[in-house]
Amino acid sequence: MMMKKYSIEIKWAALFSVMSLVWMFLEKMIGLHDVYIDKHMYYTNLIAIPAILIYVFALLEKKKKFYNGNMNFGQAFVSGTIISVIVSVLSPLVQTITSLGITPDYFKNAIKYAVENKLMGQAEADAFFNLNNYIIQGLYGAIIMGIITTAIVGFFVKTKESNIVK
Question: H or E stretch including 75?
Answer without folding.
Answer: helix 73-96
